[in-house]
């Protein structure tokens, strides 16, 4: 049932991705203005929306490898993804450093998006190589229902966690700017703690 299960998971992921990409693209200006309080963020939101389907598809294929007790392949893919991301950051930041903050942020988001696409392509090639060795069997009905039954609690927990992290990332800079009276200074402090200090501590 592996081929049928993966195919069904892909179809479910596509449906969710189309909805997510549509909402993010059409609502980017509203989100940037009302929640992020920075209209220049709208363009970055539209760029990152392109990565959403590939994030979903990569998750499905990682699930395939883990279910097959093959953890080396997804681990290698994640290392390659991070390496590509860092290299793209260096490349884009050097190239766009004189083009203003808006373009720098968009370049970083573009690097994230391209890294996700590369990650998907690599894990998809590995998946095709592995799946070709498996004989196709008759597909049973109700696979989509079974996947959704398992996925809904996990997805719900993930969405709730993302919502809380989003609230944190929005509220902290707003309160810092109320103290420092300038948004630039507050974002600078928040970026230093969240983007540099915390990763080092967790590492």
Topology:
Elements: H1 2-36, H2 41-49, H3 52-67, H4 72-96, H5 101-131, H6 143-180, H7 183-202
Helix pairs in contact: 1-2, 1-3, 1-6, 2-5, 3-5, 4-5, 6-7
Order of helices and strands: HHHHHHH
* Span between termini: 39 Å
User: What is the count of helical runs?
Assistant: 7
Fraction of residues in β-strands: under 5%
Counting DSSP E segments of at least 2 residues, the number of strands comes to 0
Radius of gyration using CA atoms only: 20 Å
Helix vs. strand class: mainly alpha
Helix content: over 70%
Mean model confidence by pLDDT:
87
Overview of this protein structure:
- The protein has 203 residues and is mainly α.
- Helix 3 runs parallel beside helix 5 and helix 4 packs antiparallel against helix 5.
- The two termini are 39 Å apart.
